[in-house]
Write a structure and sequence with these properties.
Structural class: alpha/beta
Number of strands: 6
Helix content: 40-55%
Number of helices: 10
Radius of gyration: 19 Å
Strand order of the largest sheet: 2-1-3-4-5-6
Order of helices and strands: HHEHEHEHHHHEEHHE
Shape: globular
Strand content: 5-15%
Largest sheet: 6 strands, mixed
Length: about 230
């Protein structure tokens, strides 16, 4: 902890006061205009700004256990509080991001627990989060952990989260008018390699298909990809 505190103490003098950075930091006081919303896992090995080279103000971030995108609250009447949905909606409707990246990573503990059927009774909040967020018939649960990095399962899971994002009304609207693009990334923590899902841009029929059930959306996301989704170089 000492090194973290030392860096926090010196940050303003070392970085912000540097003439090369001072003007950029002053500008942040007037507001933010991030290029993208970056949704990824809370895992400490995944550092979005380091991976992308983003500077302060360029990325709006949402981090959840297992980079899960919860279903959009569908209850009629007042929406139940949900920080994840609020973050996505704010990024899209208020900040006007033009891109959303969902980035899964190798050796993901949450996805590994799902595919290996691990006993999570000792961490009930984790168990409840995954049970609530990943349906019993979700495609990721049927992917065998072929390798220790659970790459196939993580990549399938990322595609399911992108499919779920498309069910958010604000995301649907922006995709339909061509002002928002979704991206599925996979990051290898032990090599630093980043790959992306090779898919065509959503068509209007795909946007309309978001009324389907979550299981059907996941199946559509994985359809034709085989056991391992088609991820390749950026």
């Amino acid at each position: 902890m000492k090194s973290l505190i030392d860096n926090a103490r010196s940050f303003a003098a070392t970085h912000v006061a540097d003439p090369r950075n001072a003007e950029a930091f002053r500008a942040l006081g007037a507001g933010q205009s991030p290029e993208a919303l970056f949704i990824t896992c809370s895992d400490s090995r995944v550092v979005p700004a380091l991976i992308t080279g983003a500077r302060p103000g360029e990325l709006f971030e949402l981090r959840t256990a297992g980079n899960v995108v919860p279903p959009y609250p569908a209850d009629r009447g007042p929406l139940p509080p949900q920080g994840e949905a609020a973050t996505i909606e704010y990024a899209v409707c208020v900040l006007g991001v033009r891109d959303i990246v969902v980035c899964g990573h190798s050796h993901c503990g949450a996805v590994g627990a799902l595919v290996r059927g691990e006993d999570l009774s000792g961490v009930p909040a984790v168990r409840n989060w995954l049970e609530h967020s990943v349906a019993p018939d979700a495609a990721v649960r049927s992917v065998a952990p072929a390798t220790p990095d659970v790459a196939e399962a993580v990549q399938a899971h990322v595609l399911a989260q992108v499919a779920r994002l498309r069910a958010y009304p604000c995301v649907q609207e922006r995709i339909a008018n061509g002002t928002l693009t979704l991206h599925a990334w996979y990051y290898e923590v032990h090599t630093g390699a980043v790959t992306t899902h090779r898919a065509t841009s959503p068509t209007s029929s795909e946007v309309e298909a978001e009324a389907q059930t979550e299981a059907a959306r996941e199946a559509e996301a994985l359809q034709g990809a085989g056991v391992r989704p088609a991820f390749g170089p950026l």
